[in-house]
TrEMBL record:
This is Heparan-alpha-glucosaminide N-acetyltransferase-like. It comes from Juglans regia. The keyword Transmembrane helix applies. Residues 1-75 are annotated as: Disordered. The chain crosses the membrane at residues 84-101, 121-142, 154-173, 193-211, 232-252, 331-352, 364-381, 393-414, 435-454, 482-500. The gene is LOC108986595. Keywords: Membrane, Transmembrane, Transmembrane helix. It comes from the Eukaryota.
Length: 509
């Protein structure tokens, strides 16, 4: 593994100017990235070669005679640039939250996704991913010698994310409980978590790459100079906002139908009455309509969280749409999600251009609180409710603001105060985020272990540990499940990631 390809300068300059300094790549969502690449990497600290002469140390300018007298030539001094460990820790935190809410959300509904309007712990996972993708893109693409090469790598990484998304969440993989695999192409799910990340990554990284020649080396004075310097990124985010808002409120949603298959009644068709515009409820919103038209109703997520709404618990008297599929990572909502990546890349730009801790934090925290304030006003005035399923504008602001505050808090604790040890397990997980996402969050490792069963498929090591080590000991299925997720999944993969980090092994995507 090429050591130089894993080194990075993440916004902390050396104490003196560097001459001939090489700009390396930086981290993104999963795995490692290459130079000129807006993708993902895990890397080590980069040693900067800095040429220091006597004039740089004591401001003495030697005369010609002194030079002729054999004055020593400037020497190369290597200094380590301090990497921003917060990026890995924040990414690791997001993976941990995903495992926690996915595997313990069934036992504790308060941390599971909100059935419709509102925001719970689980609803922060996706925007946190997109936020850190944006931060990492800014660092990875701050120096692009060859734009065409960067574009090719961005396209290739996007295709890889789309491929893995379909394999893991399209229905082909039945992990961890079902040992079968394969999917009926008439019902394959085309969009999911990695597909949304791929779309946001592609748009944000392409804008960053194509506007590289308009990028300033030094910011002008003024509080909004960081925004005007990267106006094209914000214009791209604003276009995404306009497309989403206009489509959401202006698109006519007609009546629609779906077929439900079950063993008792066979196939039964249901019709949902709509015929309206601008509706933000589960049945007749434009987000669902776009997905039904683009992907087809049979290719959407079959178990939407709205089934936990009170209105859907009335049995046969429940509305027909309660049984319908709905894509929480849909096309129109993913266009809105581009804003999360845009806000994230702004935080990365701040990291690049402002070298002082105080100035960085002032920029980050102020924007975080502004976003939170906007979101709270929009939500509690019922202007635009927070809604993860629709990826509403207030939801974008609230989750991005929260991401900015958490990122700033991590930065203070880890990179300013140096309290790195308590967060090492998050760093390790963040460095191998793709591995932990696939093996733990998507249950591939548990499915592999479950493949070695005794007598019947339900007698597996995973089930035995969950039942006998946790649930039966604590005499509580809820508490046992939570402890199992914390220790047998999160802690286990934290240790595995730490070992792999020590061995220099990372999953590159």
């Amino acid at each position: 593994m090429d050591q130089e390809a894993r080194r990075v300068e993440e916004g902390f300059g050396p104490a003196v100017p560097a001459v001939g300094q090489k700009e390396d790549h930086d981290k993104a969502q999963f795995g490692k990235i290459d130079k000129n690449d807006g993708g993902d990497c895990i890397d080590n600290e980069k040693e900067l070669g800095t040429r220091i002469g006597s004039s740089e140390l004591d401001h003495h300018h030697p005369s010609t005679e002194e030079k002729q007298a054999g004055e020593e030539q400037p020497v190369v001094v290597k200094q380590k640039s301090k990497r921003v460990a917060t990026l890995d820790a924040f990414r690791g935190l997001t993976i941990v939250l995903m495992i926690l809410v996915d595997d313990a959300g069934g036992a504790y509904s308060r941390i599971d996704h909100s059935p419709w309007n509102g925001c719970t712990l689980a609803d922060f996972v996706m925007p946190f991913f997109l936020f850190i993708v944006g931060v990492a893109i800014a660092l990875a693409l701050k120096k692009i010698p060859k734009i065409d090469v960067a574009i090719k790598k961005i396209v290739f990484r996007t295709l890889k994310l789309l491929f893995w998304g379909i394999i893991l969440q399209g229905g082909y993989s039945h992990a961890p409980d079902d040992l079968a695999y394969g999917v009926d192409m008439k019902h394959i799910r085309w969009f999911g978590i990695l597909q949304r990340i791929a779309l946001v990554y592609f748009v944000v990284a392409m804008i960053e790459t194509l506007t590289t020649k308009r990028r300033p080396a030094v910011l002008e004075s003024g509080n909004i100079s960081i925004f005007t310097a990267y106006r094209w990124q914000w214009i791209g985010g604003f276009v995404a906002f306009l497309v989403y808002m206009i489509t959401t409120y202006a698109l006519y949603v007609p009546d629609w139908s779906f077929v439900l298959h079950n063993d008792d009644d066979g196939a039964k068709r249901y019709t949902v009455k709509c015929g309206m515009r601008g509706h933000l409820g589960p049945a007749c919103n434009a987000v669902g309509h776009v997905d039904r038209q683009v992907w087809g109703v049979n290719h959407l997520y079959a178990y939407p969280v709205w089934i936990r709404l009170k209105v859907c618990k009335h049995g046969k008297n429940a509305p027909s749409w309660c049984l319908a599929p709905f894509e929480p990572e849909g096309l129109l909502s993913s266009i809105s999600a581009i804003l999360s990546g845009t806000i994230g890349i702004h935080y990365g730009h701040v990291l690049i251009h402002f070298k002082g801790h105080a100035e960085r934090l002032r920029q980050w925290v102020s924007m975080g609180f502004i976003l939170l304030t906007v979101a709270i006003i929009l939500h509690f005035t019922d202007a635009i409710p927070m809604n993860k399923q629709l990826y509403s504008f207030s939801y974008v602001c609230f989750t991005a603001g929260a991401a900015g505050i958490v990122f700033s808090a991590f930065y203070i604790l880890i990179d300013v105060w140096g309290l790195r040890t308590p967060f090492l397990f998050l760093e390790w997980i963040g460095m191998n985020a793709m591995l932990v996402f696939v093996m733990a969050a998507q249950g591939i490792f548990a499915a592999f272990v479950n493949g070695w069963y005794y007598e019947t498929p339900d007698k597996t090591l995973v089930n035995w540990i969950q039942d006998h080590v946790f649930i039966n000991v604590w005499h509580s299925e809820r508490l046992g499940t939570l402890l199992y997720v914390i220790f047998a999944e999160i802690t286990f993969w934290g240790v595995v990631s730490g070992i792999l980090h020590k061995l220099g092994i990372y999953w590159k995507l």
